[in-house]
Amino acid sequence: MAATLSDETLIQQAVQGRQSAYAMLVKRYEQYVFTLALRFVKNREDAHEVAQDSFMRAFRYLPDFRGDAKFTTWLYKIVFSTSLNHLRKNNPDILSLDDDDKPIKLKDPGTPDASYGMELGDRSASLQRAINLLSPDDAGIITLFYLYEQSLDEICQIMGLTMSNAKTKLCRARQRLKVILDEKFSSEVKEWI
Amino acid sequence: MNNNFQITEDLLWDYADGFLSSEEKHQVEAFLGQHPEWQQRLQAIRGEQQALFNVPMEKPRADFADRVMASWATEMVHNHAKNKAKGRDWIIIAIAAVFGLFILTPIVVMVVAALQSSAPEVSNQITSVDWGTLATTPVVQYASYLGLTFLTLRFAEKWFTQRSVSLKATV
């Protein structure tokens, strides 16, 4: 059945010129690509443009995809570079998405407490809004690691980072997320350290 | 367990995210075994981790996939036209080369012949030929070859075009 076709099969068919295989790849990954693009460019209209450009670039270079990495890792790498190009086009001063110089004002964690009174759905919605307030690279790394379950090694390939750099970035991104949740969503999030 | 071992929030996150080495993991687990309050904190972290895993994805507009495919189809048609034009290039060059050859060769032959023989003999030959003889003259033969070559090349072009269209139709 078409819905159960693996990425590899669809890629093979697409490379052979079967348009329906391209369409299935778009349907399968449109939300992933759009969400990641939105995390980077922060604007739905631009995210649509970046997501579409990413798919077009992916299709153009699909014959060069040799399967050394996962298809998703390869695709997210394209989304990352397309987003970066888009941001640079709109703001030529941007050289990278790095914002590690920004200070993080962490609240004193105090005594650990396991009580947290929010439903998972509420918390996820607040988290989604908080992630959208993060800087592009923070939002990107959080999305790639937790939502897309990419390993640190894969994140290094996507964002062009070293292993230790990726780990530090992820830690800092999480800390900044806590600060945002604390400052902007404290009424909704009773417990986030 | 190392008595100087200090647990931190980040270390617990690294533990939950699976970043620790087996030695560090054992240290954390030994510490947690003696400090139930930090065990509770780990549970809280796992809860937050789960919430991060469950953050809903953003939905693009409903016609997003259609737009991508429309753009892709446009690009494919554009590429097809470009390739077709490239295919035509060599046919045109070949036609021009053959045409040039057929124009130049008789001229060269005639110039050489004119240099070797006298002009009145040539003139007599032309005025005295009948239709049968005319068909065997070099000019008519060259013209026939030219027409035949042109038709062959046109056929080849049509055949290649038809083949690429039928390949596209099977997609």
How would you describe this protein?
Chain A is mostly helical and 193 residues long. Chain A folds into two domains: 2-90, Rna Polymerase Sigma Factor, Chain: A, CATH 1.10.1740; 101-193, Winged helix-like DNA-binding domain superfamily/Winged helix DNA-binding domain (Arc Repressor Mutant, subunit A). Chain A contains eight helices and no strands. In chain A, α2 (19-41) packs across α3 and α2 (19-41) packs across α6. The longest helix of chain A has 23 residues, at 19-41. In chain B, α1 (9-17) packs across α3. The mean pLDDT of chain B is 79. Classes of the chains: A mainly alpha (193), B mainly alpha (171). Chain A binds chain B through residues 17-19, 22-23, 26-27, 30-32, 34-35, 38, 44, 47-48, 51-52, 55-56, 59-60, 109, 111-114, 116, 120, 123-125, 127-128, 131, 142-143, 145-147, 149, 152, 167, 170-171, 174, 191-193, and chain B through 9-10, 13-14, 17, 19, 37-38, 40-41, 43-44, 47-61, 64-65, 67-69, 71-73, 75-76, 167-168, 171.
* Largest protein interface, residues of each chain: A-B, 49 and 40 residues
Mean pLDDT of chain B, to the nearest integer, reads 79
Shape of chain A: globular
**Radius of gyration computed on alpha carbons of chain A:** 18 Å
Short summary:
With 193 residues, chain A is mainly α.
